[in-house]
Design a protein that fits this description.
The chain contains twelve helices and no strands. By secondary structure, it is an all-alpha fold.
């Protein structure tokens, strides 16, 4: 008898969850879009760590975990950072809700597949050193969003841009600094400048 496991159908709903919900955005961003960008950046950071700083890292594994880093939000929604971290007790309670949402998601898979997805959903707990790359990529993705908004004249993101950049620097992560120095400025370029087709 066929079963209807809802894991992948639930993950697809990430495209309906809007990020930055307390702020006016010129371009709305979904959790799905953010997960993709975070995975691309996490892969780059891990590759920079491996090739430039000689670290023993698995960029592909870290990238896949980054794809799932906000998976629980398909159940909880996206809690805005100023609310989430305002009070330690609230953060603790929300952490329990996040934990329950991940358990619920895993239960939507056949038992044979759960152990393969568990490390992706729980990398923060089980492989904290690898998860630093996901966390840094998450911050860089947020910073890039702020750059995009402020470049378009949206002052709503001015403070967030400054705070997010400070948070990245405070991670003391050479790979993140390398990314900022070598790639961040390109996000200010228009299409002709990016492709080198300057008239």
């Amino acid at each position: 008898m066929k079963k209807n496991y809802g894991f992948f159908a639930m993950l697809r709903r990430a495209r309906y969850i809007r990020r930055w919900s307390l702020m006016r955005s010129a371009n709305e961003e979904s959790v799905s879009e953010h997960a993709y960008e975070t995975a691309v950046i996490a892969h780059a950071l891990a590759l920079i760590g491996k090739k430039i700083y000689g670290k023993d890292l698995d960029p592909e594994k870290i990238a896949v975990a980054a794809l799932f880093h906000d998976a629980g939000e398909v159940i909880t929604g996206d809690m805005p950072t100023p609310v989430k971290y305002r009070d330690p007790e609230l953060r603790k309670r929300y952490g329990r809700i996040e934990e329950e949402s991940l358990k619920r998601l895993l239960s939507m898979l056949p038992e044979e597949l759960r152990e393969n997805y568990r490390p992706l959903l729980y990398m923060e707990e089980e492989e904290s050193e690898n998860y630093r790359y996901v966390k840094a990529a998450d911050k860089l993705s947020a910073y890039i969003k702020c750059l995009e908004e402020t470049a378009g004249g949206n002052r709503e993101f001015t403070a967030a841009e400054k705070q997010t950049l400070e948070a990245i620097h405070s991670m003391n992560m050479p790979e993140a600094e390398y990314y900022l120095e070598n790639f961040a400025n390109a996000y200010h370029l228009n299409l002709d400048e990016l492709t080198g087709q300057k008239d």
